[in-house]
Write a structure and sequence with these properties.
The protein has a 5-stranded mixed β-sheet. The radius of gyration is 18 Å and the shape is globular. It contains 4 helices and 9 strands, in the order E-E-E-E-H-E-H-E-E-H-E-E-H. With about 230 residues, it is of the alpha+beta class.
Length: about 230
C-alpha cells in the first residue's frame, strides 16, 4: 500500500518537534527532560555511589545501571504500574545503548544509576528515554566520549520515514519500526533493533537518514546543556 503523505504533515525524513532541558530534578546528581512530538521522557542520574551487595563490585570500573518505566497515565489506555517484561527489556537496551559512550574506569566498585520515566507516550519512547538519559549523565558530570542520540526510523507502507508516531506504527498497510542510537561524532551505532521486515537495501538507507536525524538531535542536546551552564 502506497503511503503518500504523513498524517501530521511532516516530510518523510523529518522528526517531530523536539524540546530538551537539563537540571529538571533538583535532588538528582544529573537530570534531563526530552520531548519529541507528544512523547516525553524524564531521566535522573544518581551516583557514582558505592555498589551493594559487594560481590557485584568491579575493582576495575564502575557499573551503569538503568531503569526504564512508563507511567500508567502516559498512554490513553492505562497500563499496570510497576515492572513488566517490556520495561525490563528496555532498561537493558538503554544500558547497552549508553555504555559505549560512558567512561566509568575511575569509579571502581561504584554504580551510576539512571532512572527513565516516560510521562507521556506517542511512540519512540525508548529512543526518547535514551536521549534524556544521555543528557542527564552529562549533566551529572559523568565522563563521556560523546552524547548518545536516538530516533526511530523505518518503513510505513512503501516509504522510509524518520521518527514514526503511534498512528504510523499502527498503519494498516504495514509498518516496520527500527530504533537506533548513535554516537554522532564518529557515527558509531550503539543500538539497532527492528520490529517488522525490510530489505537489506532499505535498512541501509534508513540508517543513513537516521544518522542524519541523530546529528540534529545531538545539536539540540548540546544546546540544552550549554544553556544551563552558560551563566556559570
Amino acid at each position: 500500500m502506497s503511503y503518500t503523505k504523513r498524517n501530521d504533515g511532516r516530510k518523510f525524513d523529518e522528526t517531530r518537534e523536539i524540546k530538551a532541558e537539563v537540571g529538571v530534578i533538583k535532588n538528582a546528581d544529573g537530570s534531563a527532560k526530552f520531548q519529541i512530538g507528544k512523547t516525553i521522557a524524564i531521566a535522573a542520574v544518581y551516583g557514582p555511589r558505592n555498589l551493594y551487595p559487594k560481590f557485584l563490585q568491579n575493582p576495575e570500573k564502575g557499573m551503569l545501571r538503568c531503569n526504564y518505566n512508563m507511567l500508567s497515565f502516559s498512554v490513553d489506555e492505562r497500563i499496570r504500574p510497576g515492572p513488566s517484561r517490556r520495561s525490563k527489556e528496555i532498561s537493558l537496551v538503554t544500558e547497552r545503548a549508553l555504555s559505549p559512550a560512558v567512561d566509568l574506569s575511575t569509579f571502581t566498585n561504584a554504580v551510576v544509576d539512571v532512572f527513565v520515566e516516560i510521562i507521556q507516550a506517542d511512540a519512540g519512547t525508548r529512543c526518547a528515554g535514551i536521549c534524556a538519559a544521555s543528557m542527564a549523565l552529562a549533566d551529572a558530570g559523568i565522563p563521556m566520549r560523546d552524547l548518545v542520540a536516538a530516533v526511530s526510523v523505518g518503513k510505513v507502507g512503501d516509504k522510509l520515514v524518520v521518527d514514526l508516531n503511534k498512528l504510523e506504527e499502527d498503519y494498516e498497510g504495514g509498518a516496520t519500526d527500527v530504533p537506533i542510537a548513535v554516537l554522532p561524532r564518529n557515527g558509531e551505532i550503539s543500538l539497532l533493533q527492528m520490529d517488522g521486515e525490510m530489505e537489506v537495501k532499505e535498512i541501509k538507507e534508513a540508517l543513513e537518514i537516521g544518522k542524519k536525524a541523530c546529528e540534529k538531535i545531538a545539536e539540540i542536546q548540546r544546546k540544552a546543556l550549554k544553556e544551563k551552564y552558560k551563566g556559570d
